[in-house]
Amino acid sequence: MSVVIVKNIKQEGYFADSNLNLLKKLLISVAGYTIISIVDFIMLMTHRAGFIKYANNVLYPSGVTTGLLFLAVLYVVYLVFKYGMKVQEDADSII
Hints:
Layout: H1 2-10, H2 17-51, H3 62-94
């Protein structure tokens, strides 16, 4: 997916429908991964809490935090491309 976006950008097709659709698919897949990571972390913590009630070492959810951060950055990129498409359409209609 991201290879096609890079290819379109190299051909100066920044705000194309295909880029926006690919970003949307990438956003959905990262959201799915993040949700699965959160569920996995919750299941691990509830399973672990049943055996060890007072543990000093708590598993840091690096996969969850990284997924949420990447999801937020990807969403901002998606919004920028979506807004850029509207500006591009306005510019094309004026010219």
